């Protein structure tokens, strides 16, 4: 199965860097290690994506999905050097991350904001904790989560209620002072997130194609993706199929 996945476009750092096959950073998102892996990701996508698509449309959701998946692949390629990776979990984590940033940037629009925030944080923590199991590429999860979190500030910004209501009221002598469409903090978050996205992706791409191995500068980072125990070992064999 490893050979087939490689032929179809699985993420293999050596082929990306030495073979200049950068397209694998995208194609690996559409591949899965088996039927169970595929079904899990499809169910998660339905659970997360339907609400987001109904609220923001398929174009913006598709953009977050693809860019987050690409970000997850970049993070994975910088850390996972001896195994291949396939799967869409990085993109799914991006959608979860975008839900978190959407809540933050549109904070004043929500009623049960604290409960929603705690729920999202709990979901993220639990899923990242599951990522330390063997054969799971938690670096792709982290990369996708960060990418989606930053993207949410950029593409999910919404106008304030006061501005919306003002547009519905006919102008007159008693009209209230004009309200701004967005709050100042929303613009600040938008600018900061956009800058971090551009700089982060540019830096990651340059480092990757220069053969940079992030593990050389972080001796403990490999524990973020797999923690060995008495019940399992963290296999670094080149034939290991790591699911995102």
TrEMBL record:
Source organism (scientific name): Aegilops tauschii subsp. strangulata
Signal sequence bounds: none
Name the UniProt record assigns to this protein: RHOMBOID-like protein
GO biological process terms on file: proteolysis
Gene Ontology, cellular component aspect: cytoplasm; endomembrane system; membrane
Mode of membrane association: Multi-pass membrane protein
Membrane spanning stretches: 29-50, 62-80, 86-107, 114-133, 139-157, 187-209
EC number of the protein: 3.4.21.105
Sequence ranges assigned to domain Peptidase S54 rhomboid in this UniProt record: 20-156
Cell compartment(s), UniProt: Membrane
Principal EC category: hydrolase
GO molecular function: serine-type endopeptidase activity
SUPFAM superfamilies, sorted: Rhomboid-like (SSF144091)
Keyword set includes Cytoplasm: no
């Amino acid at each position: 199965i490893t050979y087939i996945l490689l032929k179809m476009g699985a993420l293999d750092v050596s082929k990306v860097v030495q073979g200049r096959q950068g397209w694998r950073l995208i194609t690996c998102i559409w591949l899965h290690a088996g039927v169970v892996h595929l079904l899990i990701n499809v169910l998660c996508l339905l659970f997360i994506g339907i609400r987001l698509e109904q609220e923001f449309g398929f174009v913006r959701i598709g953009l977050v999905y693809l860019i987050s998946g690409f970000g997850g692949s970049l993070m994975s390629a910088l850390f996972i050097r001896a195994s291949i990776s396939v799967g869409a979990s990085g993109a799914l984590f991006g959608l979860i991350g975008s839900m978190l940033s959407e809540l933050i940037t549109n904070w004043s629009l929500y009623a049960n904001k604290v409960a929603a925030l705690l729920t999202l944080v709990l979901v993220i923590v639990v899923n990242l904790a599951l990522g330390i199991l063997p054969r799971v590429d938690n670096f792709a999860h982290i990369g996708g989560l960060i990418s989606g979190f930053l993207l949410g500030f950029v593409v999910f910004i919404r106008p304030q209620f006061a501005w919306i209501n003002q547009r519905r009221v006919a102008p007159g002598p008693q009209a209230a002072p004009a309200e701004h469409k967005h709050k100042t903090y929303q613009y600040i978050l938008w600018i900061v997130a956009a800058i971090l996205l551009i700089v982060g992706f540019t830096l990651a791409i340059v480092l990757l194609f220069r053969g940079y191995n992030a593990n050389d500068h972080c001796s403990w980072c490999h524990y973020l993706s797999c923690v060995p125990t008495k019940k399992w070992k963290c296999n670094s064999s080149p034939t290991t199929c790591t699911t995102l």
